[in-house]
Amino acid sequence: MNKIVLLTLVLSSLLLGESEIETCKKCHPLIVDEFENSMHRKSSIYDDEIHKAVWDMHPAKAKDNYVCADCHTPNAKNEQEAKKGITCSSCHTIKDIEKHASVNKNIYNKDAKTFYSAEAGRESEKVIYKKESSWFGLNKTTVGSPYHDIDYTNKNYYTGEVCMGCHSHRQNKDEFMICKTSKEGAQNEQENCITCHMPKVDGTATTIRETKQHSYHGFPGARKDPQMLSKYVELDFKKSSDGFEITINNKAPHDLMLHPLRVVELRVNLVKDKKVTPLKSNSFVKVIGNKEGPSMPWLANRVIVDTMLKANEKREISYSDKVESKDKVEVQLGYYIVNPKALKKLNLEKNKDAKSFTVLKQERFIVE
Fold it and tell me: Would you place residue 16 in the very low, low, confident or very high pLDDT band (cuts 50, 70, 90)?
């Protein structure tokens, strides 16, 4: 009887977004606090104004066919559930990834009580909740979680393949590739999507079994905690005969920015005797569209321009400005979430996040 009641409570919490979060927080308070501020949690049109701005222009909206649901509000059966965006169970119940040309599909485990996870040294374990006793009941211990079983055997959670249901690629109806992530980023157990976007941070993963560290569930990226990803970009300076060069080293296994709305910008100041002179900035973009010019993704059939920094690319940017000993060169590499040229079309001119320039990396070099 107790098992039936427990299973009923677990299933109920998985079906109701807020109840699920409250349930998870009982054992994973640090993780839930991180997750609550993540773009996974705020993936729906109710929390993400930029996503809503794009959806408001989509032709499928008139038919009330939310084609973004599979990734932005997975498993939501009504508006109230959709407002919760991506939930804990959205990711931890993905059994496998079904590959398709247009977009991949997540295959979910039908047993809602089984959650998948990854932990080094436990790759062959499945932990089922149980209470054990010894010494005639005087010594009692608990194994596992009272809310779900834990399956550590799913290889997809060690390679980052679990992310590829939503983050692999997307084609539109004309079979034009809107965006694509390199497959190499989801194959290596040592370095992959998860090790970059869910790095190990201090604090226990659960209150049931104390650990020194846990995987960060804030999901750093262009929208949240970009400073955690700054280590994957390096800036360098070299004096030349007719000026100087700035080298940008993108150490990520994919383009520096994947979304076609993003714009990366290199800003450089030359400081001579305390006089600061801003030099011409350099932008890196991938603009998609059609024969009429830049367009929304569902209307695009070609790449108009692509200067985005590629996977594992080192790019040298030359400046013809003369520099002398003790001059200083201040360098900033940052980005816009939304291309400034698209703000008006998307009615995002008053949106602070859309307009803001975010610094990803900055360095100050002294000329020798």
Answer: very low
